[in-house]
Fold:
Amino acid sequence: MSDWEQDYIDEEEEGYFEFNDKGGGEFHFGYVHGQMDCKPITREGEPAVEWTWDGNDEMDPAQGRSWAVLKNEELHGMIFFHGGSEFVRS
Structure:
């Protein structure tokens, strides 16, 4: 995640994005945690996933949308906070 230092990403626990085979998943980085509702897509000819999410940021309710594509075994995409900022995962 290019907008933050690794220490922040792993602040509460090691940061992660986890997808399940039921079209959902969860993520946690820094003080942000969310449940995801995922949909497989194609992005620029590559397999990808889009999702909406609902969770919290420093214990305040937060939600948004995101997308990601797997390139060279690394997840690349964007996470958007409803009414807030966008951040790049690299």
Observations:
- The first strand starts at residue 16 and ends at 19.
